[in-house]
């Protein structure tokens, strides 16, 4: 299963690297062992018998961070990303939800804004990639 997840992440992140104009994109270098040893929770979305999307969740008592949300390019623009974000909102009772993406990743930014996230700040990574952090506060 970890190998399927790794292949899916690489297919999706290859597109994001192009969108960001990134020559050195760390998610594309993630080793198989990293998926297998992760303390985070992974969820998959299957379509037509294929792993079409997946997300990695880092859940804490008061906050839930969507560490990664990827959709295979063959399944782009089908509402799968929104379905996964909604799954998180429905299944985690956090006060705060966060997610990050490359600042130039228009499709991801659009998705997160439509799902009720608000931009909190932008920053530059050590690899020269401009990122944006989004947050959604849940009223308790």
UniProtKB/TrEMBL annotation:
Residues 3-139 form the N-acetyltransferase domain. Keywords: Acyltransferase, Transferase. InterPro entries: Acyl_CoA_acyltransferase, GNAT_dom. Pfam families: Acetyltransf_1. GO terms for molecular function: acyltransferase activity, transferring groups other than amino-acyl groups. The keyword Acyltransferase applies. This is GNAT family N-acetyltransferase. It comes from Lentiprolixibacter aurantiacus.
């Amino acid at each position: 299963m970890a190998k399927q997840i790794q292949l899916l992440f690489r297919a999706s992140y290859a597109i994001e690297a192009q969108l960001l104009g990134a020559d050195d994109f760390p998610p594309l270098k993630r080793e198989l062992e990293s998926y297998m040893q992760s303390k985070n929770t992974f969820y998959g979305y299957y379509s037509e018998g294929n792993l079409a999307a997946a997300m990695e969740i880092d859940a804490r008592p008061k906050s839930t961070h969507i560490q990664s949300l990827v959709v295979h390019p063959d399944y782009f623009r089908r509402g799968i990303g929104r379905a996964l974000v909604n799954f998180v909102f429905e299944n985690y009772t956090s006060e705060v939800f966060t997610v990050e993406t490359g600042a130039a990743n228009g499709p991801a930014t659009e998705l997160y804004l439509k799902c009720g996230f608000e931009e909190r700040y932008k920053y530059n990574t050590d690899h020269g990639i401009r990122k944006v952090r989004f947050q959604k506060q849940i009223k308790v």
